[in-house]
C-alpha cells in the first residue's frame, strides 16, 4: 500500500523519544510506496532545525527519505492551485497542509499524526494512516 506521507511521520520516526516514534516506524515500514510532496521535505528540514538537528544529521535523514526505493516525489505543480481551493475559510497558515491534502485527495491515502489535518482529510473521504491515534 502507498500513502502520501506528512512531515510529522518522518519527524516522529527520526526522534526516538517522541510520542509516536514506534508507531511511525511501523507505519513507514508497512508501506511499499511513499508519496512525498516536496513541501513535506521543506517542512521536515524546518522541524529538524527547530529540534536542534545538525545540518549533517538533517542531510542524512533527507537522503534516507529521497533515496529510499519506496519514495516517489509528488509533482506538486498540479496541487499548488488546488491547495488554495482546499483552504476554504482558513488562513494562508494552512496552505502547506492544503497542498499535502490535495495530493492525498488524488492518491487516496494520507499518513499523518496532525489531528486537524486528519479531520480535514476525513471530510474529503481520504483514508487515514494510522487508522486511529492513541
List low-confidence stretches.
none
Strand arrangement across the biggest beta sheet: 3-2-1-4-5
Largest sheet report: 5 strands, parallel
**What name is given to the CATH topology?**
Rossmann fold
User: So what's the overall shape?
Assistant: globular
Helix content: 55-70%
Instruction: State the secondary-structure class.
Output: alpha/beta
Mean pLDDT across every amino acid position = 97
The value of Rg in angstroms is: 14 Å
N-C termini distance: 22 Å
CATH superfamily: 5'-nuclease
**Order of helices and strands, N to C?**
EHHEHHEHHEHE
CATH architecture: 3-Layer(aba) Sandwich
Q: How many domains?
A: 1
- How many helices does DSSP assign? 7
Oligomer: single chain
Query: Regarding CATH, which class?
Result: Alpha Beta
Protein name: Nucleotide-binding protein
InterPro entries: PIN-like_dom_sf, PIN_dom
Pfam family, one: PIN
Break the fold down into its secondary structure elements and pairings.
Layout: E1 2-5, H1 7-14, H2 21-30, E2 33-37, H3 38-50, H4 55-66, E3 71-74, H5 77-87, H6 95-107, E4 109-111, H7 115-123, E5 127-129
Parallel strand pairs: 1-2, 1-4, 2-3, 4-5
Helix pairs in contact: 1-2, 1-3, 3-4, 5-6
What would you say about this model in short?
With 134 residues, the protein is an alpha/beta fold. It has one domain (2-129): Rossmann fold. It has seven helices and five strands, in the order E-H-H-E-H-H-E-H-H-E-H-E.
